[in-house]
Amino acid sequence: MAGRQSHLAGDGQKRRAVTPALIASLQNPQLKRLVRLRDRRERLREGVFLIEGARELSRALQAGVPLEQVFICPELHSPEARELPWASLPVSEPATELSRAAFEKVSGREGPDGVLAVARSEPRPLPEPLGSTAVLVLDGLEKPGNVGALLRTADGAGAHATLLVGDGLDLGNPNLIRASQGSVFTQPTAALSQADALNWLRERGFTLLACTPHAAQNYWDAPLSGRVALLLGTEHAGLSAFWQEAADLHLSIPMLGQADSLNVATAGALVLYEALRQRAGRQPLE
Questions:
Q1: Residue 35 banded pLDDT, cuts 50, 70, 90
Q2: What residues form DSSP beta bridges with 136?
Q3: pTM of the prediction?
Q4: Counting runs of H as helices and runs of E as strands, what totals does the chain give?
Q5: Cβ within 8 Å of residue 229, ≥6 positions away
Q6: Contact 114, 81 (CB under 8 A)
Q7: Which of 83, 96, 266, 283 has the fewest CB within 10 Å, making it most exposed?
Q8: How far apart are CA 212 and CA 239, in angstroms?
Q9: Are 105 and 237 contacting, i.e. CB atoms less than 8 angstroms apart?
Q10: Dihedral sign, CA of 61, 65, 67, 72?
Q11: pLDDT exceeds cutoff 60 at 122
Q12: In this structure, are residues 132 and 207 in contact, taking their beta carbons and an 8 Å threshold?
């Protein structure tokens, strides 16, 4: 079946794209590699990561993420997957078609939509801030679901960038990419040491605001309309002593029930959108 043709939609129109032979064998070397790339050590060794899902791949394309190879299963395609520009992907070879069983073997999702790409890991420089803006600093966060959700919120709230501090975080984790719905590609993001992150913020005039449950000042009373860096730590340990000492101001989210803390993604969303409200000059709804 080598060289057979597959009708794939792209840019809202039917396009005709030639694909290689259908891969159906579950012992195929390419499939085995894709399974290995679920492991962080293998991704780091090869300098690549996986992008699964039509929405995630679409946002990676918009951000200019360099792709190495694309795999598809048209039988599983969602309407969003069928709209991807398959005939003009920035890869040297056409998308490789997998059987349903083969795709489900390499997929990390329930109900996959038949879209998977291998992308190259390349550092992206942080853009220089202009005017009043917010930067999110995540100190020691490792859970991919929380980090992905925070990147999605930072993107939605118009944050300038997200700085990731700590050794355990893996930006190529498929669960992080999924939780962010591709915002990991659209939100300027950098993994930095504590010292480098602090220097970057101080050199650009950011006020450092530590989010901690023990602070006396509520977050909605804090001045968030300027150039601010919002510091968030892990739920079990909170912010490290390094950031507690570096902070210019400490602020908290009121807790009126028995629970003594919020999920870090929820806390980040509250503070990010309060910063957006203050920058927009709006008043809270009555």
A1: very high
A2: 162, 230
A3: 0.85
A4: 11, 12
A5: 134, 135, 136, 137, 163, 201, 206, 207, 208, 209
A6: yes
A7: 283
A8: 7
A9: no
A10: negative
A11: yes
A12: no
